[in-house]
Amino acid sequence: MRLFKLPFKNNKEDILGESESRLVNIPKHIAIIMDGNGRWAKKRGLPRVAGHREGMDNVKRIVKAANHFNIEVLTLYAFSTENWKRPSKEVEYIMKLPIDFLQHYLPELVEENVRIQTIGEIDNLPKNTKLAIMRAKEETVNNSGLILNIAINYGSRFEMIQSVKEICQDVQSGKYQIEDITESTLEERLYTSHIDDPDLLIRTSGELRLSNFMLWQAAYTELWFTDTLWPDFSFEEFEKAINDFQKRKRRYGGI
Ligand code: IPE
Ligand code: IPE
Ligand code: MG
User: Fold this and answer.
1) pLDDT in tens, 156-169
2) Sheet holding 115-119, edge to edge
3) Ligand 3: distance of its center to the CA of 205 in Å?
4) Catalytic site residue 35?
5) What is the number of domains present in the chain?
6) In DSSP terms, which residues pair with 75 in a beta bridge?
7) Residues around ligand 3, an ion, CB closer than 5 A
8) Is 177 part of a structural domain of the chain?
9) Is residue 101 part of a domain?
10) 31-70 in b/e burial notation, b at 16+ Cβ within 10 A?
11) Catalytic residue status for 70
């Protein structure tokens, strides 16, 4: 097992012992914007879909890595509400990937005690994609290890609008007074109501934006960017992101 180097010079390692020091300041929830599949393929003279396939294989590697580092939740942005704008052939291919992924890896994920969840509008996915995902969720519902949270047909603005609509209905029906609305009122209605906000958000491929991902939830998330294209994002680089996170000082507006 790899050990994390502590950023502190106060010999916490001596006080805690090696195995516990490895756990100091590890992000509980890591979210990844898995970007750069198309460019990965283009660089090799391959069709874009070849990049998506390679990207899918990398999901398995990074899930294993997350398990290794005792991460509690790994959220992977797989398809945004805006990605429907892409050529239909590419969208069709991407929509088949969860089916393939789960056919290949579900037994292994079950073995590794991974629990599969999703955020996004699953109901609007092609029927077979939805079925594969529902089955994977059901089969892993009792697993207590890493939560693999797949953001598919996910858009943060849509998510917030839905929540606002629900709140308005509750106000209209007299269940709430406008004055009663707090941050939790909205949070309780987001897809992520049952999980903590991400501690660390990684985006691959050199783009420095959020692309409609977890806009509410990432208010105090630490951001980490790399030029590496998603299919090439390795265990070592994942570890580097976690090590960098361990050195960050989160202040949440305080001093
Ligand atoms: C990310 O890779 C995967 C999805 C958005 C589905 P891209 O397909 O966006 O790859 P680039 O950005 O074109 O290289
Ligand atoms: C964000 O990547 C969505 C996913 C990785 C699923 P995009 O490639 O869609 O983002 P933009 O268009 O470059 O902002
Ligand atoms: Mg992209």
Assistant:
1) 999 999 999 999 99
2) 115-119, 147-154, 73-80, 29-33, 200-203, 222-225
3) 8
4) yes
5) 1
6) 31, 149
7) 35
8) no
9) yes
10) bbbbbbbbbbbeeeeeebbbbbbbbbebbeebbbbbbebe
11) no
Whichever domain contains 102, its CATH number is 3.40.1180.10
The first and second tokens of residue 227, run together, are 């030029």
Domain carrying residue 86: 25-155+197-247
- Evaluate whether residue 148 is within a structural domain: yes
- Report angle CA 113, 73, 162 to the nearest 5 degrees: 120
User: For residue 46, which amino acid is it?
Assistant: L
74 in a domain, yes or no? yes
AA identity, residue 228: T
User: Is the minimum distance from the CB of 84 to ligand 2 under 6 angstroms?
Assistant: no
Q: What is the pLDDT of residues 4-36, one digit of tens each?
A: 433 333 344 444 444 554 568 999 999 999 999
Q: Taking Cα atoms as reference points, which of 134, 118, 115, 20 lies closest to residue 66?
A: 115
Strand, helix or coil for residue 103: helix
In the chain the first and final C-alpha atoms are separated, in Å, by 35
Distance CA 114, CA 146 (A): 5
Structure tokens of 83? 């990605």
Q: What is the tens place of the pLDDT at every residue in 30-54?
A: 999 999 999 999 999 999 999 999 9
